[in-house]
Write a structure and sequence with these properties.
4-stranded antiparallel β-sheet; 27% strand; 3-stranded mixed β-sheet; single chain
């Protein structure tokens, strides 16, 4: 009998144990793609910090810089899907028996960004509030982007407390 839809997903779903490590100098949103294909924030990961996550091989993960909401990458890709821990064990050719699940280290990195975006990110990290932006002698379009970035940063902090 052939498996259909959700039955197939359950049959393919295998546990995966990962350690997401933020290798950037920015705070990163670790987002799980839920069953409605919407990003759901799992946590905010500070620079050079890590979080251990128990997930499944069918779950997708996306990483965003908190201020600009720019995509970060894992192994050059914007979407990460974990390998089941048993497959990781086989791939690494361990000779000892499987007693404890293997946790895979996943490095989150910043993709190549243009100079404009990098400068805006730096300004957003320095400025304390939206009113400070109005004092800058920069084009209104850049002021709008900075206001949005600071709003994103504030929203990320609020989202974590809820």
């Amino acid at each position: 009998m052939a498996l259909m839809g959700d039955q197939l997903n359950v049959a393919q779903r295998q546990p995966a144990y990962v350690r997401f490590q933020n290798n950037t100098c920015y705070s990163i949103e670790v987002n799980w793609m839920n069953f409605h294909n919407k990003e759901q924030t799992y946590c905010i990961l500070d620079p050079n910090k890590f979080v251990d996550v128990n997930t499944f091989s069918t779950h997708s993960w996306i990483f965003r810089e908190c201020t600009s909401k720019s995509h970060m990458v894992v192994a050059g890709r914007e979407v990460f899907i974990a390998t089941p821990w048993v497959e990781e064990h086989r791939r690494l050719e361990f000779k000892h028996p499987i007693n404890v699940p293997l946790r895979t280290r996943v490095l989150i990195e910043m993709p190549a960004m243009d100079l404009r975006k990098l400068c805006l990110l730096k300004l957003a990290s320095i400025l304390k509030n939206k009113d400070d932006i109005n004092m800058l002698e920069i084009p209104k379009t850049l002021q709008k982007e900075l206001i949005e970035m600071i709003s994103n940063k504030e929203a990320s902090k609020i989202q974590l407390t809820n």
